[in-house]
Amino acid sequence: MGYKTKADPVRLGESELEELGDQGLVVNVFNEKVSVSSCHYLDCSIENKRDYETIDARSLKSLSIIYVITPTYARLEQKAELTRFSHTLLHVPNIHWIVIEDSPEKTVLVQNFLNRTRIHSTHLYAATPSEYKMKRTDPHSLKPRGVLQRNAALDWLRENTSPDDDGVVYFADDDNTYSLQIFKEMRNTTKVSIWPVGLAANLRYERPKVTNGKVTGWYTHFKPNRPFATDMAGFAINLNLIHQHPEAKFSNTFAAGCQESTFLTLFNLTLNDLEPKANMCSEVLVWHTRTEKSKTPFEELMVKLYGADAYPNIEV
């Protein structure tokens, strides 16, 4: 495993805060740059203002960081999916994107991609052993994916952050679809916040059941009696809890489909500890989408017709 981190997150200084005053602003913190826009320039209507984290400029210094953990692996669609997800994250203030490659080393493609983004990021890598690797033709749920990569990110967090730091940890795959509102919802997680996930587990959605503001069970078809029957995209954890339980990690030996539930049991949680978000788990703000695997059957034919590709090493 290895890692690379961009410059430290940027915070607005007192002079900038004095200049900005107390107006409502949408603030994005990029690598070594701060972008501040009023709702006027972003056309924040009443309908869409809810999705943006509109915050008082003076509040930025105390805004907790969301650590977004994203495993990724080499495939034709990789750069396209990372690009799409990065465009969502550009609208979220105070995030730290931890991207972990399933590779024995950092690849040029991902390194160049992260260098071009304006998102504060850390680049890690951890190779999955061959016996646990998925083949391209394997069913999607045959083996767990991203196990060692998520663990590498957890190790990095425990080594590079403090139990006193104000932060939230979210496991976000690169092929899912995220409303900006979901990041706003998870920002103030005390222990573990939780919400529905659309298009998950062969259902329109799966969700926690909530009664009188408390999670009481799970609406899902797949093993509904799991202690925490949620999707990887359906919860966030306070950073302090990650430090309190250094033994809490994912494992390739967990039962199929039980990575999330088994991982959460390692924090000694009960349903009463869960914090239902998304209007008491009545709204879908994240979708477990999957990009269709690309097929390129005409590549060899094009070479036969026109000779060698003029740009054989072009990034796609």
UniProtKB/TrEMBL annotation:
<feature type="binding site">
    <location>
        <position position="145"/>
    </location>
    <ligand>
        <name>UDP-alpha-D-glucuronate</name>
    </ligand>
</feature>
<dbReference type="GO" id="GO:0050650">
    <property type="term" value="P:chondroitin sulfate proteoglycan biosynthetic process"/>
</dbReference>
<keyword id="KW-0479">Metal-binding</keyword>
<dbReference type="InterPro" id="IPR029044">
    <property type="entry name" value="Nucleotide-diphossugar_trans"/>
</dbReference>
<keyword id="KW-0808">Transferase</keyword>
<feature type="binding site">
    <location>
        <position position="175"/>
    </location>
    <ligand>
        <name>Mn(2+)</name>
    </ligand>
</feature>
<keyword id="KW-1133">Transmembrane helix</keyword>
<dbReference type="GO" id="GO:0046872">
    <property type="term" value="F:metal ion binding"/>
</dbReference>
<keyword id="KW-0333">Golgi apparatus</keyword>
<protein>
    <recommendedName>
        <fullName>Galactosylgalactosylxylosylprotein 3-beta-glucuronosyltransferase</fullName>
        <ecNumber>2.4.1.135</ecNumber>
    </recommendedName>
</protein>
<keyword id="KW-0472">Membrane</keyword>
<dbReference type="GO" id="GO:0000139">
    <property type="term" value="C:Golgi membrane"/>
</dbReference>
<dbReference type="Pfam" id="PF03360">
    <property type="entry name" value="Glyco_transf_43"/>
</dbReference>
<feature type="binding site">
    <location>
        <begin position="71"/>
        <end position="73"/>
    </location>
    <ligand>
        <name>UDP-alpha-D-glucuronate</name>
    </ligand>
</feature>
<feature type="site" description="Interaction with galactose moiety of substrate glycoprotein">
    <location>
        <position position="206"/>
    </location>
</feature>
<keyword id="KW-0464">Manganese</keyword>
<keyword id="KW-0325">Glycoprotein</keyword>
<keyword id="KW-0812">Transmembrane</keyword>
<comment type="similarity">
    <text>Belongs to the glycosyltransferase 43 family.</text>
</comment>
<dbReference type="GO" id="GO:0015018">
    <property type="term" value="F:galactosylgalactosylxylosylprotein 3-beta-glucuronosyltransferase activity"/>
</dbReference>
<feature type="binding site">
    <location>
        <position position="150"/>
    </location>
    <ligand>
        <name>UDP-alpha-D-glucuronate</name>
    </ligand>
</feature>
<comment type="pathway">
    <text>Protein modification; protein glycosylation.</text>
</comment>
<dbReference type="GO" id="GO:0005975">
    <property type="term" value="P:carbohydrate metabolic process"/>
</dbReference>
<feature type="active site" description="Proton donor/acceptor">
    <location>
        <position position="260"/>
    </location>
</feature>
<feature type="binding site">
    <location>
        <begin position="173"/>
        <end position="175"/>
    </location>
    <ligand>
        <name>UDP-alpha-D-glucuronate</name>
    </ligand>
</feature>
<dbReference type="InterPro" id="IPR005027">
    <property type="entry name" value="Glyco_trans_43"/>
</dbReference>
<feature type="binding site">
    <location>
        <begin position="288"/>
        <end position="290"/>
    </location>
    <ligand>
        <name>UDP-alpha-D-glucuronate</name>
    </ligand>
</feature>
<keyword id="KW-0735">Signal-anchor</keyword>
<feature type="binding site">
    <location>
        <position position="102"/>
    </location>
    <ligand>
        <name>UDP-alpha-D-glucuronate</name>
    </ligand>
</feature>
